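Appendix C reproduces, verbatim, an entry submitted by the partner laboratory led by Prof. M.T., so that reviewers can inspect both the input and the predicted structure.
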Amino acid sequence: MRRPLDLRHVISPSLRGLIELANTHDFDRVNEQIHGLRGCTNPVNLHGWTVTTDQTTKEVVRSYRSEDEPSGRLLTTCGNRRSSRCPACSRVYAADTYHLIKAGLSGGKNVAETVRDHPRAFVTLTAPSFGPVHNRKTDNAGKPRPCGCGTHHTEDDPALGTPLNPAAYDYAGAVLWNAHAGELWARFTTYLRRALAAHLGMTQKALKATLRVSFAKVAEYQKRGLVHFHAVIRFDGPDGHTTPPPPWATFDALNTAVAMARERARLTIASDSIGERVIAWGDRYKVDPITALGDGELTDARVAEYTDAKVAGYVAKYATKNAEGTGTVDRTLVCRPCAGRGYVRGPDGFHDRCDDCDGTGQAEPIKALPIHQHVRQMIRTAWALGHLPEFAHLKLWKWAHMLGFRGHFSTKSRAYSTTLGALRDVRRAWRLAKAEAARTRAGHTGTDENTTLVTASSWTYLSSGYRPGEELLAAQVRHEIAHSERVKSEGEPWL
């Protein structure tokens, strides 16, 4: 019988945990499970079982129990799309988004390849001005011009995007614009169809019978803390990507319709506290044709040629971003025990001040956050507006760390292309086929393709994250992946 390890002399919990793992009965399985996560930073810990049986013979084809794992639990990836939270899972999300967008531009993934011949545009819609900010201006020849403050800012100057006069800046308008940006986009898509019908001299019913407008969009934060949208808009026939659009559905018609819809799409917000506000698009917008097929990365939305691969890469890049680029934090500021209310209900039914946040409702004091003053003021404004009765439905205190924006970063119309769920199903089927092939090589009888299989399972969430020793193994996996990617892009280093 093996004597228990005496690790009292090992000070580091991570090293102590790694030694314990190395002395388990199946360290290879532990290592295999950690490698299977592909560097996920915050895996989900599950406990449970799954059994797959042949419906005809009632024979168990395969089964799995988390209790059989050396650690007694199953680790699975967190699936977080945000690169600031989990770079590994965000890379998978970005890759799926890339294929989703590209399929809608050049075909594939059950999308007809003839879709590449449909009129399509890369559209950028921005927010209006809520006050002059520090920026980097250029003249018509591209020569730098001084900012309104009289200086020439560098690209990494933290002052970029901040107000020239903070006291006169419309912070309430900026936060409310972010909060309604998703609704404004939805209204824009409605007015786009109406504007197209008006431009072509058709009724909306006649347009719908002959043309479908498909789109996919992503939100991106500007340095001033306001979101703007990049969208792929495409004309299809009435049945979607499988049918060509009518000859009169051209890029010029799309360009005109975008301009008209941008002007007409508006929301009016009434408030006794801050007055009436009109939510509308800014004056700056772009509509560029996507005409070429090619590869590469679109690093600047102002480049002259837009290829399907470049546009897909650009959209995928920002699908994994949040507001961190503006200098804000990547976590909610809501106190969890009191859910941001500042009080908890005591045994007597009365409201007692929350001890965790001292009645502020904030998990972290806004004044103590290590952020720029402009971002801090937007967070404060969102928090204050969120507690006004007329804006309670927006839950701005919940989205204060996002500077008020509460919509989905990437969305698409139903018929644009495939779905993220379909891409994940294909990946899951590939893994199952690979596992079945491994079972066959090991001598197990393979299942007939006509066999009906029934799967039953029961799973319980335990926690998230690694144990100390597992974190060291995960760090090694992340190092190996980073090294592999560096070698792939730069080549093998000289020894």
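The radius of gyration is 27 Å. Additional entries are available on request from the coordinating office.
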